[in-house]
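HOLO CASE FILE
Compound: manganese (II) ion
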Amino acid sequence: MTEEDDIIIADLHCHSTMSDGVLPPQEVAKRAHANGVTLWALTDHDILDGVPAARAQAKELGMEFVAGVEVSVTWSGHTVHIVGLNVDDTNTSLVDGLRRVRGGRTERAREMGRRLDQMGVKDSYEGALSYVSNPALISRTHFARYLVDQGYSPSLQAVFSKYLGDGCPAHVPMQWASLEQAVTWIRGAGGRAVIAHPGRYNYSPAQFDALFETFRELGGEGIEVMTGSHTPEQYREYAEVARRYGFLASCGSDFHSPREARIDLGHLPPLPEDLTPVWHDWQ
Ligand code: AMP
Ligand code: MN
Ligand code: MN
Ligand code: MN
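Model generated. Tokens follow.
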């Protein structure tokens, strides 16, 4: 083996049509591989059903693969995303837990549709549904794509700022999984729990400290340092958090769509060398 063969290009956070991505699992695998990814995880929101197809395609391409999921969690009144990596995707507690977590999505989407109607956006529930590939998983992203394509907003970000983000008129709060449930399900399925895109949460410094401490006490092990959601300044900030709390470091583009990607699959800079990667002891 040459030295070059040893370099791991990891992308451990992305989405397919099984949740709010626009490419089927096989196509996400091909894009990751074409972009140079050597270690890949598919991490759809609250569902593992894309994993078998993703695994099979990764195997065909000779790309290392671990099963993953991004679990929606409510902690201290806000949504936090916890990525589970290298899980057994057939684990009953995890599979059943995820089914319960996503269970309220359709009713929530109908309510979002009613609220958007009051804001002058017509037929958004039906519109969002036309963007949904997996009926078990309708998300705000599907609404946002509909609103942009109908000309209500110039960008997905603008939809979230005006209509669907936390505190906006069409935002329907959800009670997702608890932090303890998410970490317990992931660990019970043999996986590793990782805090996704910490730079996106609107917590105070004291709340962040409580989140990190609680997560660690519950058995959480990792944090995303490199993610498509972070600025270079935030790469440094969360590398420092990983050092301070003793977290393993993860790296994932959070790719959803070729048109929407700020950072494409496999295009993040490498982790700082002194951090221990979340994959350090994977075979
Ligand atoms: P949901 O799980 O239905 O609450 O939808 C959350 C999803 O919305 C996230 O996984 C992102 O894909 C998307 N999202 C959240 N905030 C934004 C934003 N500001 N801009 C674009 N997409 C966003
Ligand atoms: Mn998403
Ligand atoms: Mn997320
Ligand atoms: Mn994500």
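CASE NOTES: Residues 15, 20, 45, 141, 256 surround manganese (II) ion (ligand 2) (CB under 6 Å). The longest strand covers residues 64-75.
CLOSED: yes
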